[in-house]
Amino acid sequence: MSRIRFALAQINPVVGDIAGNSALIRDAVRDAANAHASVVAFPEMALTGYPIEDLAFSPDFVDESEEGIRVLAGQLDADGSGDIAVIVGFVRRAATPSFGGAIAHNSLAVLFGGEVHSTYDKQHLPNYSVFDEERVFVPGHEPLALVLGGVKVGFLICEDLWRDEGPVETLAEQGLDVVVVINASPFDRTKDDNRFPLLVRRARQFSAPVAYVNLVGGQDDLVFDGDSAVVDASGTVCARAQRFESTILHHDVVGTAGGSGLDVRERTLNLLAPVITPDKDELDDIWAALVLGVRDYVTKNGFASVALGLSGGIDSAVCAVIAADAIGADRVFGVSMPSQWSSDHSQSDASDLANRIGCQYDVQPIGDLVGPFEQQLQLKGLAAENIQARARGMILMALSNQHGHLVLTTGNKSEIAVGYSTMYGDTVGGYAPLKDVPKTLVWELAEWRNRAATDNGEPAPIPQNSISKPPSAELRPGQTDQDSLPPYDVLDSILDRLIDRRESISTIVKAGFALELVSHIAHLVSISEWKRRQGAIGPRISRMAFGRERRLPITVRRSTL
Amino acid sequence: MSRIRFALAQINPVVGDIAGNSALIRDAVRDAANAHASVVAFPEMALTGYPIEDLAFSPDFVDESEEGIRVLAGQLDADGSGDIAVIVGFVRRAATPSFGGAIAHNSLAVLFGGEVHSTYDKQHLPNYSVFDEERVFVPGHEPLALVLGGVKVGFLICEDLWRDEGPVETLAEQGLDVVVVINASPFDRTKDDNRFPLLVRRARQFSAPVAYVNLVGGQDDLVFDGDSAVVDASGTVCARAQRFESTILHHDVVGTAGGSGLDVRERTLNLLAPVITPDKDELDDIWAALVLGVRDYVTKNGFASVALGLSGGIDSAVCAVIAADAIGADRVFGVSMPSQWSSDHSQSDASDLANRIGCQYDVQPIGDLVGPFEQQLQLKGLAAENIQARARGMILMALSNQHGHLVLTTGNKSEIAVGYSTMYGDTVGGYAPLKDVPKTLVWELAEWRNRAATDNGEPAPIPQNSISKPPSAELRPGQTDQDSLPPYDVLDSILDRLIDRRESISTIVKAGFALELVSHIAHLVSISEWKRRQGAIGPRISRMAFGRERRLPITVRRSTL
After folding, report:
1. With bands split at pLDDT 50, 70 and 90, how would you rate the model's confidence at B474?
2. Position B561 pLDDT exceeds 80
3. Which of A88, A83, A43, A52 is nearest to A69 (CA)?
4. Which end of chain B is more exposed for a tag (fewer CB within 10 A), N or C?
C-alpha cells in the first residue's frame, strides 16, 4: 500500500500560447511539488488552450503542440520535477486524418523523467451545444491506465466520462485506485446540477475516487469555472476547488499495486487539510462568470481599458460594475450621451453610478451630431430614432480609435432575442457582458450586487433609481420599452420556453400565454437573426446562448422555432 | 426489359417553407408528367430547404416535415400523379435521439399511390467545411433499393456517394439498373473538378447509371448550382442540366426486373433529345453564383430593393452590376457620398456607372455630417478617417430605415481577410456580394462582365476608369490601399496560401515571399477575426469562405494560422 499526493492544477491558459501556457504549467508543478505532490494533473488542452476550433487543422499548430509537450517534459526535468508524473492535455497528430480533414487527436500526455512517457487520445468527441469536436479532431481508440508509485491510475478526457459506453466501461473493469479526468468543461447556470451527480455515479461505478480537473478562465464566449474536485469511491465529495480562479487542489490517494510502475517521487507527507469549497448562491456564480469573461477578454486581447455608454439605465449600470469588478474602475471609461429626448434622470443616474464606482466619466451630448443627419436626409420616425443610437455608437468607436478602449455593448439577452436594438448603434462593441443575461436576471443581479456590497459594509454601486425606473431607449419623448414589448417578466418567460427549452408555440400557449403574443415574439426572434449574426460575442451562462450554441438560418420562411 | 423516364427536378426551395416548397414540387411533377416521366426525383431536403441547421432540433419542425410529406403524397395523387414515383428529400423523426440531442434523420421518401411508400435515411453525415450534419441529424443504417416499373433503383443521399464504405458498397453488390442520388451540394469554384470524376467512378463501380439531382438557389452564404446530371455505366455524361437555374432534366432508364415492383405509369415514350449543357468559363460560373446568391437573399427575405454606396471604385461598381443582374437596375439604389478627400473621379465614375446600368442614383456629401463629430470629439488620424466611413454607413442605414432597402456592403475577401475596413462604416449591411471574392478576382470579373456585354452587343457596364485606377479608401489626401498593403497580386497570393490552402508561414516563405511580409499579413488576418465575426454574410465561391467554413477563436496569442 502506498499513499501518493495528487495535485489538480486548475489553470487559466491562453488559446494558442504554447510558450506562455508551458510557463503556467511549470509554475504550478513547482507549487504542487512544494506541497509534496507526486502526480500533477492539468486540464484538457492545458498546453494549447481550449477550444482551439479550426486551429486543429493547422499542421504548424499541431507540430508546435507536439514539440511543445516534448520541450515541456525536458523543462520540468530541468526544473527538478522529473520524478513527478505530470498529466497535460495537448494536441497530438493522428496517424490517419479523418474524411473531413481533421489531422489531430485531443490528447493527454504523461510526462516523466524528462520525456513523454505515455499518451491517451480522447475517444468521445462532443459535437453538440457549443462543441465541434467531431469536426476538428480524430477520435482515439485505446484506453490508458498506468501505475504511478504503486497507484493504479486510469485516464479519461472530459466527454469520455459522460458516455456510458467505451472507455468508462473499460476502466471500470480494471480495479483502479483512481481515475483522473482532465476537462475543458464550460460553465453554465445548471452545470453543477449535472456534473456532480455524474462524478458520484462514476466513482461508484469505478469503485475508486474520480479526480476531476477543469480549466478556469474566459475564452471568447465561453467561461470555464474550474470546480475541480475529487469524489471518493462511496460518492462523497472529498475535495473541491474554489471556482472561477486559478488554484491547485491536493488529494492523497492510496495505491494497491505495491512498488510497481513509474517510480514517482514519494516524500514524507504532511497530513492534508481537506479543502471542500462550499456551493455559492447562483447569482454569485453568474456574477463571477460575467466578471471573469470580461476580465479575460480584455486582458488576453491586450486592452488597457474599456469604454461604454452610460444611459442611466440598468443594463449599462450593471455592465459598468461588472467591468469595474473585472479590471478596476480606473480602467473603465463611461460616457453619458444625452439627446433632447433624454430624461433628466438619465444623466443624473449615469453620473451617480460613475461616482459610486469611481470610473472615468464624460458627457457627450448628441444633439449637434444628429441634427445634420436629420436635416440632410430629412429623417423621420424609426430612421430618426436610429440615427441617435448610431451617433452614440460612432462616439464610442471614435473614443476607442483615439484611446484604445475596448467598447462594451450593453444589450441584454431579451433585447438581443427580439431584435430590440439599433444595428451599428447600441450594438456597437467588441464584447457584450449581458449577451446571455435576460432582462429580469439583469435586475436580479443588480439587486444581488448591491446587497453583496452592503453586506460587506461597502456602498451599493448601482443607483436604486436605475433599478426601479421603467426601462426606456429614450429615442422619442416618453418612450418606454413596454410600448412595443410585453412586460419583461412575461417576455422572459416566453423567451425561456421558446429559445432555451425549444418549446413549440402551442406548448407555450397551453402554459397560459396568449397565442397572438407568443407568435409575435417568435416572429421577432426569427427576423432578428441577421442582427445576432453581426453581434458582439459575450460570456455564456445558459445552456442556450446565442452564437455557436444556436445555429439558425437567417433566410427562413416561418416564425415558429 | 422496360424503359422508364426519370425526371431530375432541380428546384429552388426556401428553408422552412414546407407549404411553398410542396407547391414547387407539385408544379415540377406536373411538368415532368407532361414530358412522360414515370419517376421524378427531387434534391436532398427539397421539402424543407437546406441547410436547416438547428431547426433540425425543433420537434415542431420535424412534425411539420413528416406531416408535410404525407400531405404532399395525397396532393400528388389528387393532382393525378399518384402513379408516378416521386422521390423527395425531407426530415424524418429518428426512433432514438443522438447523445447530443439530434432527433431527426436527413431522409428521402418515395411517394406513390397517395402514400409514403418507403423512406431512406442518410448514413454518412458530413461534419466538415460548411456542414454540421453530425450535430443536427441522426445517421441511418439501412440501405434502400426498389423496383419501379421494372427498373431496379438504388437510393443514396449526397455524402453517401462520396464515401467508399457503407451504402455505396451495399448498392454496388445489388445489380441495379440505376442509382438515384439526391443532393444539396453547394457550389464552389472547384466543385466540378471533384463532382464529375466521382460520378464517373461510382457509375462504373455500380455498372449502372448514376442520376444525380441537386438543389439550386441561394441560402444565406451558400449557393447551390444544380448541375444535375446522369452519368451512364461506362462513365459517360449523358445528360446535364443548366446550372444556377430551376429546371428539369429527363433521362430514360432501361429496367431488367420485368414487370415487378411498383406499377408506375408507363406511357408511349417519345424519343428524348439529350440535354448536355456544356461547361462554361469559370468566371461565368462565379458571376452566376454571385448573382443568384444576391437575388435569393433579396427575394427570399422579402426586400423590394437594395442600396449601396458607390465610391467610383471597382468593388462598389461590381456589386452594383451584380445587384442589377440579380434583381434589375430599377431596384438598385446607388449613393455617392463624397468627402473633402474624394477625388473628382470618385463622383464622375460613380455617376458614369449609374448611367451605364440605369440604377437609381443619389449624391449625399458627408462633409456637413462628419464636421460636428470631428469638432466635438477633437478627432485626429485614424479616428477622423473612420468617422467618414461611419457617416457613410449611417447614411445607408438611414435610407434603409426610410425606404426598406437591403444594404449591400461592398468589401472584398482580401480586405476582409486583413481587416482593411472600418467597423460600422463600410462594413455596414445585410449582405456582402464580394465577401468571398479576392480583389484580383474582382478585377477579373469586372473585365469578364464588360467583355460579356460587348460580345453581346451591349454597352460595358463598368467604367474603365474604375477598373484601371489605383484602389483607394480616400479617407485622407492622396491615400491608396498600397500605402498600407502590398500590391494586391502579392497580397492575394499570400492570402490564398495562408487561408485557402492553410500553408504555414515557412512554406509560403519557401515559395518566394518575404518572411516579414508574410508574418505581417498573418498577424493582420489573426487580429481582424473580431471584425469578421460581426461581418455580413455573403455568397461562398471558394473552398475556404469566411464564416461557418473557417471557425477560429478571436482570442488567440499567435500570428500564424
Report:
1. confident
2. no
3. A88
4. N
Distance, CA of B289 to CA of B244 (rounded, Å): 7
Question: C-alpha cell of A39?
Answer: 502526480
pTM more than 0.95: yes
- Locus of grid cell 472547384: B190
pLDDT tens readout for residues A24-73 = 999 999 999 999 999 999 999 999 999 999 999 999 999 999 999 999 99
Nearest CA in chain B to A62: B561
DSSP summary character for residue A330: G
Chain B CB contacts of A20 under 8 Å are 557
Residue where the block lists cell 458498397: B169
d(CA B332, CA A389): 27
Contact B205, B302 (CB under 8 A): no
Burial class of A344 by CB neighbour count within 10 A (0 to 12, 13 to 18, 19+): exposed
Residue B449 has φ and ψ, to the nearest 5°, of -65, -40
Is the pLDDT reported for residue A137 higher than 70? yes
Among A127, A380, A561, whose Cβ lies nearest the Cβ of B134? A127
Host H or E run for residue B361: strand B360-363
| Sheet with B104-112, side-by-side order of all strands | B115-121, B104-112, B85-93, B39-41, B2-10, B247-255
User: Which CATH number among 3.40.910.10, 1.10.10.10, 2.60.40.10, 3.40.50.620 corresponds to the domain A284-479?
Assistant: 3.40.50.620
Of B15, B397, B399, Cβ closest to residue A423: B397
| Of A113, A65, A48, nearest in space to A86 by CA | A113
Reference B277, options B192, B207, B218; nearest CA is B192
> Where along chain B do its domains lie?
2-261, 284-479
* Whether the complex's predicted ipTM surpasses the cut of 0.90: yes
Orientation of helix A314-327 relative to helix A282-300, angle to 10°: 70
Kindly list the catalytic residues of A. Answer: 44, 122, 158
**Cβ atoms of A153 and A176 closer than 8 Å:** yes
What is the arithmetic mean of pLDDT over A330-336?
98
Spatial contact of A532 and A544, defined as CB atoms under 8 Å apart = no
Q: Are B413 and B437 spatial neighbours (Cβ–Cβ below 8 Å)?
A: yes
What is the per-residue pLDDT for B88? 98
User: For chain A, what is the mean pLDDT?
Assistant: 95
Return the sign of the alpha-carbon dihedral for residues B163, B166, B171, B172: positive
8-state DSSP, B456: T
Q: Which amino acid is at A286?
A: I
Cβ contact (<8 Å) for A424 and B17?
no
Q: Cell triple for residue B351?
A: 455617376
Tell me the count of A-B CB pairs closer than 8 A.
234
Which CATH code of 3.60.60.10, 3.60.110.10, 3.30.559.10, 3.30.70.120 fits the domain covering A2-261? Answer: 3.60.110.10
d(CA A210, CA A217): 23
Q: Could you tell me the three cell numbers for B40?
A: 421524378
* Mean pLDDT (chain B, rounded): 95
Nearest-neighbour CA in chain A from B46: distance (Å): 14
Q: Nearest residue on chain A to B102, judged by CA atoms?
A: A128
- Contacts of residue A169, defined as CB under 8 A and 6 or more positions apart, other chains included, come to none
- Beta-carbon separation of B220 and A534 below 8 A: no
Q: Please provide residue A507's backbone torsions phi and psi, each rounded to the nearest 5 degrees.
A: -65, -40
